[in-house]
Amino acid sequence: MLKNKCLFVGQVGAIDYRKLPNDAKVCRLELSVSETFKDANGQRKENNETIPLQAWGTMADWIKQNVRSGDTIHVDTSMRTERRETSSGDERTRVVFRVNHVDVLVRNKQN
Fold it and tell me: What is the pTM of this model?
């Protein structure tokens, strides 16, 4: 059986919590991750990525209460593709990761 599961460890960037008109709660946050490697010339390089995360309902509330920008977290997610149509009729797609579970590993000392 295949499972849609993605695990990340990274540093939290921007956090946006909203309560929607239908009373649904959503928290969108960015997770910065990096990897270090050596290129063909033996030079050390670093590759940085920003992962878009979404949490809904009680998980959104938990993140609002317990996670701050700058914290290092371990997050268990599932990948989703969102599709929307622009006002000009073009279709746009983007990949987001729906949060299933979060562990705060290191607190940002400035918060």
Answer: 0.83
